[in-house]
Amino acid sequence: MPGDHTAAFEALFEYYPAVVSLLRKMGFDHEDARDLAQQVFLRVYQHMDAYRGDAKWHYLEQVTRRLAYNDQRDRHAAKREGIRVATEEIIELPDERTPAADAALESEETSQRVWRAINQLTPSDQTAIRLQMADLSQEAIAGKLGITVSALKSRLSVARKRLRVLLGDEPEGLDGRE
Amino acid sequence: MIRKEDWDAAYRRQLADGQKRLGPPPTFEEVEALSSGQLPEEEAERLRELLSHYPDMLRILTEPFPDTGDGVLSDEELKADLDKLRERIRTTAPPPLAFPRKASPWRTLPLAAGIIIAIALGGVGVWRMTSHARGVVTQVLYPERDRGIGTRGVPSATPAHLSNDTDYLLEPVFDSPRAYREYRLELLDLGTTPPRRVWLRENVTQQRDGTYPVRLSTGELDPGLYHLVLYGVDGTVVELADYTIRLKAK
Asked: How many other CB atoms are found less than 10 A from the CB of residue B118?
C-alpha cells in the first residue's frame, strides 16, 4: 500500500532539520543545504527497499554524505573546466617601500620557504602535513583513510622532524591544529 | 619564527598545486573502498594523497551527524520544505520499488505451518542420527586491526577459523577507552563485491571483560571469509574494530 510507504517515510521528517544542519556544517550555504536536503529525502524515498533497519538517522546520514560528496565533487570538476586555479598565489604588494610593504614581502618569503620545505618531503610526509593542516578530527580522518590514528600520528611526527631540519625552525604553526 | 599565517599561505599553495597536478577528488565509491581497507596499499596511498588536497571533501566525509537541527531552519522554512517534499513525492517521485509488503495471512499461515512441521520432523531426524544435543561453542575473537582508539588485540590471532553448521557464542575483544551509548555488531560476507551484510545486531552488551558476546549459527552460511565489525554509537557511528572469520566446510 503506497500509504504505508508514505507513513514510514514521513516518520523520517523529524530528522530534516538535522540533515540541513549537517549540510551547513559540511560547508554548504543555507539555500544549497536546503536543496540538498530535499534531494536526500527524495533519494531515501526512492530507495526505501535498501533500508535494513539501522537507526533512521544513520541511514539518512549515509545518503546525505554520499550526495553532499558527489555535489561538492561536481563543483570541483566544474571549477576545473572553467577558471583554472592559479598555481602561484597572487599577492598584492604595495609599490612603495613602507613598513607594511616590507612586512608583506617578508611574509611572502617565509611562506615560500615553508612551501619549498614541504615540497621536499616524501609524498607520504606531505600527505601527513596536509591532513594535519586540514584541522579535522584525526580519529575521523584515520577511519576514512583506512589507517589507524596511531599510524597517522606516527607519520606526522616523522614529517615534523624532517620539516624542522629543513626549516631550521620548530614547525610551531602546526601546533594549534592538533 | 614562522607564523601561522605563513603556514596557511604555504598550505593554500600546496592545495592549489596538488589539485591542478593530481586532478579531481576521488569518487565516493573509491573513498568507501579506501575506508574499508579493500585497496592495495599503493592505490590506497595514492587516494590518501589525493584526498589530502581536498580538505572540503574530508570535512564532508568526517563531520559528525548532529544530535539536533534546532535553529537551523525557521518554522516557516521547515513547513515550506516539508510541504514541497510531500508535493514532489506526490507528483514526480516513483514509489519505492520493493519496500516490504504485508503478505496476506491466508497465504502465509499454511506456508508457515508447513515450514514448522518440516523443521520439526527434520529436527527429530537429525536428533536421532546424532543422538546427542549440540552445544554452543565459545570463540574469542581478537581484532584484525583497531581503528586507532585502543585495543588489546593480537593481530596474528586472526582470522578465527570456524566450522560450518555449528552454534557459536562469539566474544569479540575490544578495550573501549570511552563508553558509547550503544554498541553494534555487523557481519559482512567478503565473498561478494561489495561485501554483503549478513546481519546487524543493535544494542550489543559490553561485558566487564571488554567483550561483546553475540550468537552465530554457521549452518546457513557459505564457507568463506567474513568480517565482524564492532561499532560504537554516540551521536555518530564510529567503527571501533573488525575481526576476520574464516568459515570452513565440515
From this structure: 10
State phi, psi for B9 to the nearest 5 degrees. Answer: -65, -40
- What's the Cα-to-Cα distance from A64 to each of A45, A46, A68, A76, B1, rounded to whole Å? 13, 14, 6, 18, 43
Q: Where are the beta strands (DSSP E) in chain B?
A: 136-141, 145-146, 160-163, 167-172, 182-189, 196-201, 214-217, 224-234, 236-248
Q: Which residues of A touch B239 (CB under 8 A)?
A: 143
Q: Do A111 and B10 touch (CB under 8 A)?
A: yes
CB B30 within 8 A of CB A131: no
- Report the distance separating Cα B129 and Cα B209, nearest Å: 39
Residue B173 CA from chain centroid, whole number: 17
Q: Which of A69, A133, A150 sits opposite B11 (nearest CB)?
A: A133
Residues whose CB is less than 8 angstroms from the CB of residue A111 and which lie 6 or more positions away in sequence, other chains included: B5, B6, B7, B9, B10, B13
For B54, the closest chain A residue by CA position comes to A134
In tens digits, what is the pLDDT along chain B, a chain of 250 residues? 778 888 889 999 999 999 989 999 999 999 999 988 888 999 999 999 999 999 999 999 999 999 888 889 999 999 999 999 999 888 765 555 444 444 455 556 666 777 777 777 766 655 555 444 456 888 888 886 544 343 333 333 457 888 877 888 898 888 877 788 788 898 888 887 777 888 888 888 887 778 898 888 888 888 888 888 888 887 677 888 888 888 887 6
- Per DSSP, the three-state class of B207 is coil
Q: pTM for the full model?
A: 0.59
